[in-house]
Amino acid sequence: MRVLFSWLKEYIEGELELKRTAQALTMAGLEVGAIEEIDGDTVIDLEITPNRADCLSIIGIAREVKAIFGLKLKKPSFKIKQELKDSKFTISIANPELCYRYAGRIVRNVKISPSPQWLKKRLEASGIRSINNVVDITNYVLLEYGHPLHAFDLDLLEGAQIRVGTPEDFGKKTVEIVTLDGVKRNANSDDLLIWDGVKPVAIAGIMGGANTEVTEKTVNILIESAYFKPDRVRKTSKRLGLTTEASYRFERGTDIEALKEALDRAASLVEEIADGEVYETIDIYPVRIPEKRILFNMDRICKFLGVSIEIEEIIRILKALEIEILKADSDNYIAVVPSHRKDIEIEEDIAEEIARIYGYDIIPAQMPSAFKYVQENYELEKKRKFLNLIRDYMIALGYSEAVNFSFMSPEELNFLGIPEDDIRRLYISILNPLRQEESIMRTMLLPNLLKNVERNTSRGIENLRLFEIGRVFIAQEKEPLPQEIVHLGIITKKEEFKSSFKDDPYDFYALKGLLDGLLRHLRLYNVSYVRTNEGFLHPGQSADILVRGEKIGFVGVISPETLLKLDFKTKPYLCIAEIDLDRLFTLSETKIFYEPFSTYPSVKRDTALVFPVDFESQRIFDIVKSFGSELIEDVFIFDVYQGIGIPEGSKSIAFRITYRANDRTLTTEEVEEIHKKLIDKIVSETGGVVRN
């Protein structure tokens, strides 16, 4: 807020020095952002925190200054010369839940003209453009008292009345209104509006309508001073994208008890500057805000602040802040909070007010007392190390970490073909999303990683390897909060062409091998891969990942159908994986067992079998594992082939078995016998044919 220093001094009895005042305001919580000279005067730019709506005025700042320096407040002196009566005009509030009080004064025979120079100067120094004397007076009082006012052209108000309510209150769903900035705006059924007898004439607390604007042709006016519910003003302002000096103050809460004084001040200035004839106040006050009384204890206040302050000094500070003090009993007091201090709610707020005025710099610095030793959360630390281990593993393999917002769109679940009964459909909707594309909390990491790839591709990056470790949010029945699960998402991208100079590792088997290495690194050995039902994955190059028979994620290639829906000019090859790290954490081995490795040589045997094209290679691993020989050390598939020499509808799978004994060197005959039995078992259980 911009404060003209010469204007501020008019409301303080006593001398004020600029630098000392600026420093004192900053130490009291009203930070001075800048001090500038304008036309021989000084303007202080103050940063007002959102909870201090009482300081959004010259009188509010003066109130702070007088409390800090122990001076007296000198409010503006004014008097209305004559008040006439008008029994024809009426004001009614149709929705008292949104408008607690509405007051107005009719002023007739005003002379619209440019404002006097002193008024223009104060408005312009405060950042407000001068329009005409009546409008300028309402803006002047807004700056002076912090309470927004509005002036209507009385002769343009139909039906000699003002009504306050929503379109729904008057049987309408939506209405159109052209505001003072010349923009046509649509008001929803629950937006609070000001109406005359026929039409809406203002958006309550935000901006007046152009259909009742005060112009040079205006002769008679109605000055409005009201209190509107702050959250409704905020909601309407945000929806319309319209913020004004009035809405800024109404959103934070104005002083309901001071609105009549602000109205009278404006009427007196119109009488003085525009020669108007002022009529009596029409004041409708259906909802009264109860007086706040806070019980506090002097000893607790001092203990909270960490300094011993005399009771007399505490009472003096609070009275300087216009907080009335009542005696409750021998140890407790009651603070009666004035209507302009909406930020004071609890005993700790009272302590803060005392500290501000007493002086933060006077309170000695000391270490806080610890009532209980806080033990280290070993489980949390263990999980943090677990996640850092995975992060380091991915970075060491050349992957870049992506960090995305925790939002997505429901349409992305439809795009990926997620079934209606899938757990990922249990999402949490955001009440006020910034945009529709980010209207729910994400239930999977994949959509945002796909956007990362699209965005980087549009900037000419051909090959990518990204990962993200982040939370997904799954709604829980009968629980107010969602389940938060940490996931690992991985995506690799290469263009459809292949390099002639080097091997290209961006494929399904490379990503599957990376996951195998990660799981072994986490000491998870009971891992299997089975055919997945994820509709967005290629049916022949994808799998669900199972640990101890429990699904923890999936890995695969984006299907051609899904790829066509994405915004790529070419047809890149996308491999993805997503894993539930919380389940992985609980399944990982916590203990490490060591055993000596064999010093005897290994024997390797390679075999190729022909299977139907839809055969799952995981079955080979399962059969080898069930064979039960201690001599089998390892098995891995090194080739899958379709083409010349292989019957149509079939594929060749070549795998290598490693044999080793811990106590001797294996003989050729011994290995051949075991290997033959193993291959016969695989052939008999799968129907495979040994490839010649």
What's the CATH C level of the largest domain?
Answer: Alpha Beta
Number of strands: 32
Q: Which fold name is given in CATH as the topology of the largest domain?
A: BirA Bifunctional Protein, domain 2
Structural class of the helices, strands and pairings?
alpha+beta
Main attributes of the structure:
692 residues; 27% strand; 5 domains; five-stranded mixed beta sheet; Phenylalanyl-tRNA Synthetase, Chain B, domain 3; 19 helices; 32 strands; seven-stranded mixed beta sheet
Structural topology:
Elements: E1 2-4, H1 5-9, E2 12-13, H2 18-27, E3 31-38, E4 41-47, H3 58-69, E5 72-73, E6 90-93, E7 99-108, H4 117-125, H5 133-145, E8 150-153, E9 161-165, E10 175-178, E11 184-187, E12 193-195, E13 200-203, E14 207-208, E15 221-228, H6 230-240, H7 245-252, H8 259-273, E16 277-284, E17 292-297, H9 298-305, H10 311-320, E18 324-327, E19 332-337, H11 347-358, H12 378-396, E20 400-401, E21 407-408, H13 410-415, E22 440-441, H14 446-458, E23 464-474, E24 483-494, H15 508-521, E25 527-530, E26 537-547, E27 550-558, H16 560-565, E28 573-580, H17 581-587, E29 603-612, H18 618-627, E30 632-641, E31 650-659, H19 668-686, E32 689-690
Parallel strand pairs: 6-9, 20-23
Antiparallel strand pairs: 1-4, 2-5, 3-4, 7-15, 7-16, 8-15, 9-12, 10-11, 12-13, 13-14, 17-19, 18-19, 21-22, 23-24, 24-28, 25-26, 26-27, 27-28, 29-31, 29-32, 30-31
Helix pairs in contact: 4-5, 5-8, 6-7, 9-11, 18-19
